Amino acid sequence: ATMHIKKYLLKCLHRLQKGPGYTYKELLVWYCDNTNTHGPKRIICEGPKKKAMWFVLTLLFTSLVCWQWGVFIRTYLNWEVSVSL
C-alpha cells in the first residue's frame, strides 16, 4: 500500500515539475476513465468495432442533446413579454 502511495506521489511531483498542461489525449483518456456516462468509458475500453460504434452513438446523442438545448433556448427567448411600469 505504501509503495502504491509513493508511486502516486512521485507521479504527481513529476506532473508538477513538467508544467501545468496535459495533452489533449491525456485529458480525454482521464475523462473517459472517470466519467459516469457509458459511452466515453466504452470508447477507450472496447475493441475497435465497438469503439467505433460507441463513438458514433455518443456523438449522435450528444448532438441531439445540444440540438434540444437550442430548441429550448430559442423557445425561451421568443416568449412574449409585456412590461408595464
Write the layout of secondary structure elements.
Elements: H1 2-18, H2 24-34, H3 38-45, H4 48-77
Number of domains: 1
Please give the radius of gyration in angstroms: 21 Å
Instruction: Return the average pLDDT rounded to an integer.
Output: 82
- Individual helix count: 4
H/E series: HHHH
Q: What's the N-to-C terminus distance?
A: 69 Å
Beta fraction = under 5%
Shape: elongated
Main beta sheet: none
Residue runs with pLDDT of under 50 for 5 or more positions: none
Organism: Tursiops truncatus
Membrane topology: Multi-pass membrane protein
Keywords: Ion channel, Ion transport, Membrane, Sodium, Sodium channel, Sodium transport, Transmembrane, Transmembrane helix, Transport
InterPro entries: ENaC (IPR001873)
Task: Spell out the key features of this protein.
85 residues; mainly alpha; elongated; ENaC
Explain this structure.
The chain has one domain. The protein has 85 residues and is mainly α. The chain has helices at residues 2-18, 24-34, 38-45, 48-77. 78% of the residues lie in helices and 0% in strands. The longest helix has 30 residues, at 48-77.
